[in-house]
């Protein structure tokens, strides 16, 4: 009996696949997807090389299911895997191959969270291959790397003050022919505004980078966070600013309040991206002598301070843009621990030696 090719009937499956039906999937992309996937299976004679399959998977993801950054990251991650495996025929990849790759990551001292991300990408890729190309999945028994949840470490008041102060001056210079000095930074105001917005609102760094002058409401002391791409992570909401942040922000935006330009830009007048902010904060942290300065710690700090000062978890969930209360509950547990420690210090029954 002649065995049917595992991809027989692909044409009918392609017509009914989510990518083909998506209104966001352009005619040009649909045709490119059709050509690439057909190339994979043409009469069963052309090997289904992993790199070609990655291209088809990349185009499939552009159907609107994933955010742009996610699509690009998946492609880069799968390309690294393909290079390690020497771009094999996709039907020849085995569970042993995938396990050896995960061991390779461990030996290279790749972090647990990064190894888990590779695992997720592998699962997603072979799930697509199973559903779209009806291929068997070699990843089904690939064990997910365990990741220990990192401690939530907010900034202290003193650390924030040192970080803000470090925005104003450059690294101390020590020339041989004169006494040392610190030059003022031309971007001091912008850098302080970045830090104050992150601290005062708890927004994500990507949301900060997408802010425009028109998103600032000086009257209501608020920022409008707009839905981005799929809306899975960032969706419409309003966050608020305190008087200290507004005092710093007002002269920066008052003359451009109707300008549709980006709020924070680099020296070349281009919008800052997440990596740009990360490098900026790392440099400021080094000057301030504060270890581990990154944007997400400002989000942690906002959340914990919000609860310490009497805010409720439901409003905090909305302000942070979380769809679930689970992450917010982590902040609540920390704030309750603070309350318990504070009571130990302030207990009148203990302090009065009753």
Summarize the structure.
Helix content is 54%, strand content 3%. The protein has 354 residues and is mostly helical.
Question: Treating each run of at least 4 consecutive H or I residues as one helix, how many helices?
Answer: 16
State the distance separating the first and last CA atoms: 92 Å
Poorly predicted regions are 1-15
Tell me how many strands there are.
Answer: 3
| CATH homologous superfamily classification of the largest domain | Intergrase catalytic core
Helical fraction equals 40-55%
> Helices and strands: which structural class?
mainly alpha
How would you sum up the major sheet?
A: 3 strands, antiparallel
Mean pLDDT: 81
Q: What characteristic shape results from the CA principal axes?
A: globular
The assembly state of the depicted protein chains is: single chain
Strand ordering within the main sheet: 1-2-3
Radius of gyration (Å): 26 Å
Tally of domains: 2
What is the highest CATH level, the class of the largest domain? Mainly Alpha
**SSE pattern:** HHHHHHHHHHEEEHHHHHH
Strand residues, percent: under 5%
